[in-house]
Amino acid sequence: MTDTSANRLPPADIDLTSAQVRRELPARAKPYWHISTPGVHLGYYKGGRGAAWYGRKFVGEGRYRQTKLGPSRDEDAAGGLSFVEALEALVAWASDGAPTNGTPAAPAPREGRRQAERAAKQLQPTRLDTISRAWAQERPDVDFWLAGFFLRLEYAHYLHDRRVQEVAKQAGANVGDLHVLLALRRNGPGVAMRPTDLYRELLVTSGAITKRLDNLRAQNLIERVADAGDRRSELVRLTASGQAVADAAMTRITESLKRIVAASGLGREELIQLDEGFRRLIAAM
DNA sequence: CGAAACGTACTAACTGACTA
DNA sequence: TAGTCAGTTAGTACGTTTCG
């Protein structure tokens, strides 16, 4: 696979998920494009001598960088890439920009492969587009744009949550436990909090906090200390290892966010405008 | 003595692994 | 690929303890 020079291309979105749809596409000189994520598109080239998958990503100023991902399985059952495999290759290429040799990646271990397939499926915006189209068909009297906007917000939150889950997993905790560690950490090293303050801050029930605290204490990540001012209460404090886990997790989360922003191509000014918009929306809710 | 803080038991929902 | 099942997680209800 070879990177071509960045070139100007108009946006387009063809549904390439179905082999039937791909079969019905007429051969043409340029690939058909499917929007995988904003700025990252999966291409399906169909010519007289075969079919192949392409990828392109937005590089700013209306320009795209394009690459060949590999032959399509539609035309090469033995060595070609399926839609999901092409999407995986696209995600890998778009995330680090490293060109591959045009052949599918070596088979991953079973679980790793399943995770990659699931991740690739989650990256398909067609789910959201399908919902938008369905509403537009069922209720043409309603402008779905606003609902679609919030649907994308929910999806962004979902994807962010998955990344936080990964970070928690690397730290040997679940995401709920990690949120407790981070809540304790941001209140300052060595500061003890009441379980009541924790469940109010984390928007969970007291029962849920009790379980999380039991888990964290069993892992020696927190310690319980008597509250001199209230004998009903037993305060919660990070241990040294708990603080180390919280700090490491926060570093990983921040680095992950930086990578996402860099990959999106959004500038600081654009992010500040988005942030201001979100603040105003939240204040109005 | 009512209210608040916390913990426990039980239940529902979700997720992932396994199997046909 | 769909269905099943076990494990996990969080929520609700309620009991106990303590405060004001």
Name the CATH superfamily classification of the largest domain. Answer: Winged helix-like DNA-binding domain superfamily/Winged helix DNA-binding domain
What do the pLDDT scores average to?
69
Low-confidence stretches: 1-12, 97-124
Subunit arrangement of the protein: single chain
Described by the principal axes of the CA atoms, the overall outline is elongated
Biggest beta-sheet profile: 5 strands, antiparallel
The CATH topology of the largest domain corresponds to Arc Repressor Mutant, subunit A
Q: How many strands appear in the DSSP assignment? A: 7
H/E topology pattern: EHEEEEHHHHHHHEEHH
CATH class group of the largest domain: Mainly Alpha
Q: Percent of residues in helical segments?
A: 40-55%
By secondary-structure content and strand pairing, the structural class works out as alpha+beta
What amount of the residues lies in strands?
A: 15-25%
Strand adjacency order, main sheet: 1-5-4-3-2
**How large is the count of helical segments?**
10
The CATH architecture term of the largest domain is Orthogonal Bundle
Biased composition (Low complexity): 97-109
Organism: Hydrogenophaga intermedia
Region (Disordered): 96-123
Protein name: Transcriptional regulator, MarR family protein
